[in-house]
Amino acid sequence: MMEKADEIAELMTSEMGKPLVESKGEVQYAASFIKWYAEEGKRVYGRTIPAHVDNKRMLVTKQPIGVVGAITPWNFPAAMITRKLGPALAAGCTFIVKPPNQTPLTAIMLIELCEQAGIPKGVVNLVSGNSSEIGEELLTNSHVSKITFTGSTEVGRELIKEGASQVMKMSMELGGHAPIIVMDDADVEKAVNGILASKFRNGVQTCICGNRIYVQEGIHDEFVEKFAAAASSLKVGNGLDEGINIGPIIDKAGYEKIDSHVQNAVSKGAKVVLGGYGKAENHTYFYEPTILTDVHPDMVIMHEETFGPVAPIQKVKTEEEAIEFANQTEYGLAAYVFTENYSRGIRIAERLNYGIVGWNDGVPSAAQVPFGGMKQSGIGREGGSEGLEAYLETKYISIGL
Ligand code: NAP
Hints:
Blueprint: H1 5-16, H2 20-40, E1 47-49, E2 56-64, E3 67-71, H3 79-91, E4 94-98, H4 104-116, E5 124-126, H5 131-140, E6 144-150, H6 153-163, E7 169-173, E8 178-182, H7 188-200, E9 210-216, H8 217-231, H9 252-267, E10 271-274, E11 278-281, E12 284-287, E13 290-293, E14 310-316, H10 319-326, E15 331-332, E16 334-338, H11 342-351, E17 356-359, E18 374-375, E19 378-379, H12 384-389, E20 392-400
Parallel strand pairs: 3-4, 3-6, 4-5, 6-7, 8-9, 8-16, 9-14, 13-14, 16-17
Antiparallel strand pairs: 1-2, 2-20, 7-19, 10-13, 11-12, 15-18
Helix pairs in contact: 1-2, 1-4, 2-3, 7-8
């Protein structure tokens, strides 16, 4: 992957639009899962448990779970495959991936690279085509032991229902609606830079992107002014062009959803501080970085995933109020807090009902840490030692002497 990094990145930008520099970053991130799990595979330990009687020995061993079916989304065409493939191979599983129809080419290239790297034929496989037909086969074929899915909560729910007939083992990485809390004692520069990275990465087509920002009243106006100044310098355009920060939206439906969220907020009293509009060019859809203030919880944008470069900012009075608003969602994937007060940071991080908390950090993902959501954001974790455990069965062997 690293030898072909430029080639993979160009293909990725061509098929889904993210700026080339971000595609290059994704190739590095994607490859880091293969490398990390290649090392971690050495540490699949069992254990010996002292028996309660003299004539027994008790062993616990780990075995590969079996054939894995992986269904992946378009927003990270490489990393969402390797985050599953790395640990599955390290555990000793074989792997069938069904990439999304929007980004099959990056997936095909990765599978070709597996072959070139010497992975035996049949160990890593790809099937593309009609998603519900392939999904049904993976979910009902008795040779498949596990489904690992990354995508929307709606599709995840359907797969869980379908897999119930054979009690399919499942990992689910689903949607999110990440809150960002900025307290009065935050370092404003740090908050602006962190939120810019979290908010506008991948054109905000990222599951852990901040979706709604709660800013304490004492710092609100200063934050909005500095955040808008920084966001206004972001350039929207063809991801292959030099200096582009935000590429096109994945498709027309994605674009229309963003615009409807903005229009809904404006019709209910939101003020547009920056952007607020998009444009279509040759069937390609772009949306300007947009900042809204005076938003409130009744607006669609405050509870549905927008998947676009729109930052709604709500003013809050206290820490208590910020936490309460932040937790008012069915999702629980990622949340962010900006404060320089360490007692407050720990208090807030512990009370946020989310699987991932970025404290003064807008980009918390890495291969070696557990990634995943509470509530309706998913089941299980990917990354870190938890990510390997997801592809292992635990077997207890009781030996009578
Ligand atoms: P999606 O519509 O749920 O699709 C995800 C995958 O599921 C695609 O490969 C899709 O294939 C397939 N699929 C759709 N219907 C299916 C069915 N009935 N049976 C089997 N497979 C089916 O999600 P998306 O629009 O690609 O991705 C965006 C979503 O993913 C967002 O909600 C985002 O938050 C979430 N996400 C979560 C994480 C995480 O780690 N938690 C990471 C990235 C993205 P086709 O496209 O070919 O139909």
